[in-house]
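Hey, resending since the last one bounced:
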Amino acid sequence: MIPERVHPSDLRTSSSSSPPPATVKETTATHPSFQEKPKFPPGTYVIQVPKDQIYRVPPPENAKKFKSYTRRATRNRGHRCCCCLLFSLSALLLSLAIAAGALYFAFRPKPISFSLDSIAIRNLNLSSSASASSPLNPEFNATIRSDNPNKRIGFRFRDGGSVNVFYGGVALGNGAWPAFYQGPRNVTVFAMSLTGSGIRLSAAERDGMVAAEGRGGVPLQVAARVPVRVRFGAVTTWTITVKVGCDVTVDKLTANARILSKKCKVKVRII
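The structure tokens again:
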């Protein structure tokens, strides 16, 4: 079969005579952002709240779980804080222990010692002629020896130290410990005056002192409390409290009293 020849004029005629294409209405897919706003029934109010002001509240069925999780988180934070605090304190104590150990091995500290060399007693009249109710104004002149055996450690005794003398718990006199610096390997002897005013002894206390003096041995106690700073080479510590306690026995309660026995102890309070 021989195909027919089609002339260009026929094509133009056919194209011009063909009806126009049908108009196709474009349909735009509805996007979620262009949806119509929801319609609410009459009498309904819509309040718009900014997003950053919205507080999330758990529903009632999850309220218990929410409280449990909140308490657990709070406990965990508290445990972490306690652990951090304990760790810091442990590190501080360890550092102090290491520093103290280094100072100990570097300086080899030895305790300072004290002794009562002499004591003179005046105005302590316990004769039978004196009234038991009359007040006493005794005076004690004591000589104290301080011995520092350390090679490179010094002691600075500061103002504010006090000394008291007792008989059986009854205070008979008091005075001030002198302020001075005692260098390494040094022995310092100093005198102090202890006075009492208006001391009243009971009949039993007076009779006990008279009986002890008759036996040739009156026990007395001397107690001192002194603020001291310790010097390790070029380093000086904070102020510490040194307590000195001496048990002394004298033959009589006069200016010519002689010490029969003595024993002193030293206690140091760091804080």
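Residues 113-269 form one domain.

Sorry for the duplicate.
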